[in-house]
Amino acid sequence: MGDKENGMKVALVTGAGRGIGYGIAKKLLSEGYAVVLADIDGASADAAADGLAAPERLLALQADVSDEQSVLSMVERSVARFGLLDLLVNNAALAGAHAAPVHELPLEQWSRVIATNLTGVFLCAKHAVPHLKKSRGSIVNISSTRALQSEADTEAYSASKGGVVALTHALAMSLGPEVRVNCVSPGWIHNGAESELSPADHAQHPVGRVGRADDIAELVACLASTRAGFITGQNFVVDGGMTRKMIYAD
Prior knowledge:
Blueprint: H1 3-6, E1 10-14, H2 19-30, E2 34-39, H3 42-50, E3 58-62, H4 68-82, E4 87-90, H5 107-135, E5 138-142, H6 155-175, E6 180-186, H7 199-203, H8 213-224, E7 235-238
Parallel strand pairs: 1-2, 1-4, 2-3, 4-5, 5-6, 6-7
Helix pairs in contact: 2-8, 4-5, 5-6
């Protein structure tokens, strides 16, 4: 398929087998993109693609973003299928924020989180950039509000997501003007059934509800579009206002 000829844009979304990544892939597909759904769990990527319409605009791949050869293969297969690449969404991450107390945290566990959540963003950008420059495309990285505030025992995850924010503005300076690079930092995004949430869960958010994957997907689609042509190097917090809320013990 030569999508450069028919004007279709192509997006590569990592961690697209479920949750926020799947929501982003679904939104981009609805916006007319051809979408590569990549996930370390190949079966999840396949199932996600099977649940979406327009199979001719979809490619599901197994990929480990912490492994450079896997990333290189992912990018090469994406371009081989669709002919070009316009958008890279770096969403893949090890999601468990809480680990052991810092004085008990094994180096192996720290390194694994950094390798996937931060080094993975670097590797995907490294190998996608030559194609993104040709298309004058963009990168949207997914960080977290934990890059800005923390709970106890979240050192590895918080450090990795803080690194994503810093890497975003570094890439924006290095890759402009051909490639714009921005970041989205989600707060509490619930991907399960609404019944799993309590009224108190919703009420603690200034907007009155817990976030949904669609909330992140809408912003990603906007940042990737020409509507955001004057925006690069920025981090956008999408958390229902929680990071602006002052909380005092009674």
